[in-house]
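Thread: quick sanity check before group meeting

JM: Hey all, I'm pulling together slides for Thursday and realized we never actually wrote out the predicted structure for the chain we discussed last week. Dropping the sequence here so it's in one place. If anyone has concerns about the input, flag it before I start.
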Amino acid sequence: MNPVHLSLGFTRRVVLMAVVASAAVVGAGGGVPASAGSARLSTPVPAALAAAPAVRFEVATANETNDLWTFGNFPSRGVWDWHTGVAPGSSPAIASVPGGYELAVHTTASDDLWTIGFGGNRDWHLQVKPGTSPSIAALAGGGYEVAFQTSGGSLATVGSRGTRIWQLGMMAATSPSITALRGGGTQIAFQSSTGTLWTVGDAGWKDWRIGMCHPSSPSIASQGQHGFEVAVDVTFVNCQEGHATPSNDVWTVGTGGTRDWHTGLIVGTSPAITQLTGGGYELALPTNWRGAWDPNNADLWTIGDGGNRDWGTGIGRTSASITSEPNNGFEVAVYPSHLNQMWILGTAVNKAYNIGRQAGNTASSPAITH
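JM (edit): ok, ran it. Output follows.
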């Protein structure tokens, strides 16, 4: 097994230095809690990037002081400090809803799950397992649903369809992923307490009997009306490091079939997947390839129906987030390993935001929606 698999036809590309220098100039406003404060970034966007096709995106992240921030070009609260603490070792989640976006947050307030944004604000008074993160999906008929791991280690969902404790055990230090099905309902992917991939929801239940790396988490995207595809980090020999070659590969499994991408991930990170507007899907992942196998750093790669690319950008041991854009495009949110910034890279827009990740926490990653 060759985990690098140059047969995919990747070519290394140097990301334009303009990416590092650019930042969005976005206004703030809108009708969400008055307790939230606003902020603007004033660095001008280089002409080459300013002329890029207009796409819509919004990113949620936790900064160095564990504050929840959103960045992007949504017309209301596009750049915003929510004055909400994000629990160390966790990442916020974001989904587009009518009028804007909704956030799901594992807060520093007793590890409670909160949802805040344009779909309403609520403390659910349910505790999230330390070191894990929620996932949120906007429902086809309106509203949203959040999946998370409870403090007791079970899968749970809350939202417009009510609260449910699934009584399904999850692996410690892993997080579920939820997607809304076009035909209605949701589907959830998670690493079970036995270390295998499970999917549950309105499209059916299944133990895929695929061993996952720990503490990697799966990512799920809808396909068609009632289908889905899951990106998962599959283990062969306990995902050990220090060998001549890695011991894991990224797979996609779901209603559209199973595929081994023969691409290794840095141990402890997770892949991300999004449905493309023209059909199919695209993955964003921190690979273990930087011209040679490197167990200490990762290049950002995107692979799938939207094309394969090594972005030539080291992202350390953090995970990326990806969202679809018009014309089969996509945008990725990621923290480059050598800068205290957050980057947006994709088929239409490249931007840099001067915000750093949680201090000393490589597990915290940004989340992006369109």
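AS: nice. The helical segments are 17-21, 47-50. The mean pLDDT is 82.
JM: adding both to the slides.
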